[in-house]
Amino acid sequence: MDALDRLVEPAGALLRQVEATLAAAGAPEDDPLWPLLRRLRVLPTDAVTGVAGWRAEPLEGMLPGLRSLRERYEQVGDAVPAWPAWEGAGAEMYAARWAALRAHLAAPADPGPSHGPASAAPPGAEAGTLAGRLSATIRFTEELADWVARSRRELANALAEVLGCAEAVTVTAGDAAGPAAARIATHVLGVAAGLVDEGQHLHDTWRARLVELPYVPPPVDGPAGADRTLRITG
Known about the structure:
Number of helices: 8
Low-confidence stretches: 108-126
Mean pLDDT: 83
Distance between the termini: 64 Å
Radius of gyration: 29 Å
Number of strands: 2
Strand order of the largest sheet: 1-2
Helix content: 55-70%
Order of helices and strands: HHHHEHHHHE
Structural class: mainly alpha
Largest sheet: 2 strands, antiparallel
C-alpha cells in the first residue's frame, strides 16, 4: 500500500462533497475548472479512482520474461549452421533462408563467399529485428512503469494538499463554498491532466518503434536455370 492507497478514501469523501457543492452552487463561467472538465470528461472522484487503479507492479513483472525471450531470439541463430553440409542450388536456397530468418530474429547475417560463419551485424541493424523490437518493448515497459509510479506519487501529493488546505475547511463548513470547491476540483483535475499529457507523450514517442515487424522470406525458387545438382560435402 502506497500513499495514494492511503489517501483515496479520505480524499474521496472530500471530493464527493466538492462535487455536490459545485452541483448546487456552480462556478463562474470563466472559471478554469470548465476547460478541465470538458477536456477530461470526468469528475475529480472519477479521475482519482482511475489513477488509483494504475499499478506499476504488473508491468515490472513482465520484464524478466521479455528479457528472457529477447535472449532466446539473439541465440537461436547460433544453434543452426549457417551453411549446410552440401553444395548446389538447394544449399544456396537454404543459406538464403537461414540468413533471412536470422536477420529477422536478431541480426543480419551474411555467410560470405567462403560459406563461413555469419558476419557481425552493422551498427544499428538490430533495430529492424525481433530482438531489437523486444529491446524497445522492454525499454517502453520500464518507462511506462516509471510513469505509473510517478503518477501515483504526484496524485497522492495533490490529494494531501487539498485535504490540508483552507478550501477544504470551507467546503466542509458549507458556507459560500462554491469558489472553494471549484479551486479544489481544479487542482485535482489539473494534476490529472498533466499525468494524461505525460502518458500521451510516452505513447507518441514509442508508437512507431513498437509496430509489428513482418518476416519477409527470400524467393522460393533460385534463379532461372540454376544448377539443381546436389553435392554432399561432409
